[in-house]
Amino acid sequence: MTQDLHALSAVAAAEAIREGALTSEALVAACLARIEAVDADIEAWTFLNPDFALAQARAADERRRSGRSVGPLHGVPVGIKDIIDTYDMPTQCGTPLLAGRQPHQDADVVARLRAAGAVILGKTVTTELAVFHPGKTRNPHNPAHTPGGSSSGSAAAVAAGMVPLALGTQTNGSMIRPASFCGVVGFKPTHGLVPRVGVLQQSPPLDQLGVYGRSVEDVALAVECLVGHHAQDPHTRPRARPPLLDAARAEPPMEPRLAFVRTPVWEQADPATKDAFAEVTAFLGPGTVTEEALGSAFDSVVEMHRVIMEADLARNFAAYYERGRDQLSEVLRTMIERGQKVSAVEYNNAVAWAGMLHDALEELFVEYDAILTPSTVGPAPAGLESTGSPVFCTLWTYLGTPAISLPLLQGEGGLPLGLQLVSARHDDARLLRNARWLATRLSGAAGQPSGERDGQGVAG
Fold first, then answer.
1. pLDDT attached to residue 329
2. Which residues, 6+ apart, have CB-to-CB distance to 419 below 8 Å?
3. Per residue in 240-270, is it b (16+ CB within 10 Å) or e — as a string?
4. For this structure, is 81 an active site residue?
5. CA distance 173 to 183
6. pLDDT per residue over 330-379, tens digit each?
7. Which position among 24, 150, 405, 423 bears the catalytic label?
8. What does the pLDDT read at residue 444?
9. Contact 82, 92 (CB under 8 A)
10. How many whole angstroms separate alpha carbon 209 and alpha carbon 170?
11. d(CA 221, CA 243)
12. Which of 174, 203, 215, 405 is catalytic?
């Protein structure tokens, strides 16, 4: 094993621990040392108890040495976004209104991680109640730039080498945007594939869980452990567990066909983003990528998403608003107050519209294996007052389709820029397979597109 244990991928670490070539204690100690070395500049963690993390690791090692069965993530440390309940660590959701809150049981996903053998390393920083008001985390590539939205601590922790895996959530763009800004793989599975029981509820039609990792295989391994049905989450269904890791490792039976979709918000993209995607599509060639336009029915998605999200915030955050509105940020108060004015007809129409758009999108997936589109309007903007625009994520959250951001592009100043792939609902396995194929295809492309010579373009 190398001395840089903290930089191991989750897949490599799990295999080494399973084979006895590495102990969980050594891996967790390396991650803790990395945190000690770099987190003062990044501040990705809101709760971390090194002694408790090491105790979990030693218990994992003792279980393996005793010959008992081990899970697919045995001994691998994972960071948990601080809106996801943990019975042995506080869950405070980024607001003083929940300071000191200690759940009595784990969220379903945390219980699944423990069953898979994972070490729960600590809780990562979230924005205020997982909405827009920034937390304390800074971008690992440049601390003067935002790390992105509400899953910022998880994305930054993985990007800085502090932990190989971390959980996040997305109600608008809070999985994909931080992945793009921080330069890691971020995977948001199909809505309803992963149970949300024990996770702060913003909007049931929109809330989705996801994972950050160092590779497509890493996020596939983690999400495969999280898939399941839970009676308390009516959006989940009993279904066979998809073989996500095997799919991510497999070669496509034929070269995938990708649809480059600008989406109705294309004009909000930075010029550098537009140039980078022109280079990507040119590099892949017309036999692989074809530009396709979405119909005018998709033009209202951002507004439909806003109606649903704000109405649900008004309902689900009513208690916070009533007892502590003066401790809420102005942006969140404004969203709640707008949501209070949404009529039932407006809300139901916005929910129903998603179903009609699904039918239109399915026609595109008959011909194409995945959609290629930006993850964000551009690299992480300077300043810590904003988390950046989620607008290139909104459509796919609204429709509940699986999406993955790949750290394959580079913007001005060397900041990461994500490339987003999207597939049809419940086509998660094929999305991961195509994502790994695309990452491999572009990984040797550094220097090919002319834009990289100007600090833009495809990154190797």
1. 97
2. 277, 280, 372, 374, 375, 405, 406, 408, 409, 438, 442
3. eebebbebbbeeeeeebebbbbbbbbbeebb
4. yes
5. 15
6. 999 999 999 999 999 999 999 999 999 998 899 999 999 999 999 999 99
7. 150
8. 67
9. yes
10. 6
11. 9
12. 174
Q: Which of the following is catalytic: 81, 151, 203, 215?
A: 81
Predicted TM-score (pTM) of the model is 0.95
Q: Which two tokens stand for residue 297?
A: 């029915």
**Which pLDDT belongs to residue 3?**
59
Give the residue from 456, 444, 442 showing the smallest Cα distance to 372. 442
Q: Number of H helices and number of E strands within the chain?
A: 15, 12
User: With the C-alpha atoms ordered 161, 162, 165, 171, is the resulting torsion angle positive or negative?
Assistant: negative
Q: What is residue 39's three-state secondary structure?
A: helix
* Interatomic CA distance for residues 348 and 170, integer angstroms: 21
- Indicate the residue type of 253: P
Residue 117 contacts residue 75 (beta carbons within 8 Å): yes
**How far is the C-alpha of 136 from the C-alpha of 147, rounded, in Å?**
10
Which letter does DSSP use for residue 327 in this model? G
Residue closest to 30 by CA, chosen among 46, 59, 51, 8 = 8
Q: How far is the CA of 50 from the CAs of 3, 86, 137, 155, 364, in angstroms?
A: 20, 16, 20, 20, 49
Handedness of CA 131, 136, 141, 144 (dihedral sign): positive
Quote the CA–CA distance of 294 and 263 in Å, as a whole number: 7
Strand, helix or coil for residue 138? coil
Q: Is pLDDT at 309 greater than 70 in this prediction? A: yes
Helix H or strand E segment including 78: strand 77-81
Q: Please write down the long-range contacts of 382-387, taking CB distance under 8 Å and 24 or more positions apart.
A: 382/144, 382/145, 383/144, 383/145, 383/146, 384/134, 384/138, 384/144, 384/145, 384/146, 385/134, 386/132, 386/134, 386/146, 387/127, 387/132, 387/134, 387/146, 387/148, 387/149, 387/150, 387/152, 387/177
Find the distance separating the first CA and the last CA of the chain, reported in whole Å. 25
Rounded Cα distance, 430 and 234, in Å: 25
Q: How is residue 422 annotated by DSSP?
A: E
Let me know if 150 is a catalytic residue: yes
Is there a contact between 404 and 396 (Cβ–Cβ < 8 Å)? no
Residue 118, both tokens: 């994972």
Q: Is 43 left (phi over 0), alpha (psi -120 to 50) or beta?
A: left
Q: How many angstroms separate the CA atoms of 165 and 284, rounded?
A: 30
Residue with tokens 């390393």: 121
Question: Is residue 136 annotated as a catalytic residue, yes or no?
Answer: no
Buried-exposed string 333-369: b where 16+ CB fall within 10 A, e elsewhere: bebbeebeebeeeebeebbebbeebeeebeeebeebb
**Which residue in the block uniquely carries the two structure tokens 């509820």?**
201
